[in-house]
Specification:
There is one protein chain. By secondary structure, the chain is α+β, with helices and mostly antiparallel strands. It has two domains: about 5-50 and about 115-195, PH-domain like; about 55-105. Helix content is about 40%, strand content about 20%. The chain contains seven helices and seven strands; from the N terminus they run H-H-E-H-H-H-E-E-E-E-H-E-E-H. It has a four-stranded antiparallel beta sheet. It has a three-stranded antiparallel beta sheet with strand order 5-6-7. A hairpin with a 7-residue loop joins strand 6 and strand 7. Helix 4 packs antiparallel against helix 5 (about 85-110). The protein starts with 18 loop residues before the first helix and ends with a helix. The model is unreliable at about 1-15 and about 25-30 (pLDDT under 50).
Length: about 200
């Protein structure tokens, strides 16, 4: 039914947080209006998650590294006699770049919403162009937990969903804390509600 290739690390320790600990209150008042609009009045929200706040710096690492390189180069160049800028200018430019990237990443984080109900899996994301993925539990054929190196360091992971008849994973819950506990909750929900 479902696959999890990372079985060697899939068992969360007893001290690890559970999916219920990480989920915000399942009361629909916490679920964004854009997601609530697709829910039936009697649909039960089991999990509502966002990516970890670490998603913001982790997704910005490339720009932050580039900012550090630029500030170093500009600061070095500012020591040249013909340089039109100072070290302060270099720091301001790098700070502006990093701030813009982190602000964009925060907006991206804010627009992510991952919802598991007694009927479907939902993933919403997008700042300018919004994407809303939903699949009935009865159609979920495979799931997967993937951890990039940076996610693994911080105990995060990404959960992928594939529906019947598709050769690829359709949607992902990115940078979720305690991904194996969340994955287990998803599987339990599919077993309970999606296999009737």
């Amino acid at each position: 039914m479902t696959t999890d290739p990372s079985t060697s690390v899939s068992q969360a320790s007893e001290a690890s947080p559970t999916a219920d600990d990480l989920a915000q209150s399942p009361a629909q008042g916490f679920v964004p209006a854009s997601v609530q609009a697709v829910l039936a009045p009697d649909e039960i929200v089991i999990l509502y998650l966002r990516p970890s706040l670490l998603y913001i710096p982790l997704s910005s690492l490339g720009t932050l590294a580039a900012s550090a390189v630029i500030v170093s180069l500009l600061a070095y160049a500012s020591k040249l006699p013909a340089s039109p800028w100072t070290e302060t200018h270099a720091i301001l430019i790098a700070t502006l770049m990093a701030s813009c990237r982190l602000s964009w990443a925060w907006l991206d984080w804010f627009t992510h919403a991952f919802v598991l109900t007694d009927r479907r899996v939902i993933a919403r994301r997008g700042i300018i162009r919004t994407a809303l993925y939903e699949a009935p539990l009865t159609r979920i054929q495979n799931t997967i937990v993937v951890q990039s190196a940076r996610e693994r360091v911080f105990g995060l992971g990404t959960i992928g969903f594939a529906t019947a008849g598709r050769g690829t994973f359709d949607a992902f819950w990115q940078s979720v804390p305690a991904p194996f506990a969340v994955h287990r909750k998803v599987l339990e929900t599919i077993q309970r509600y999606g296999r009737k």
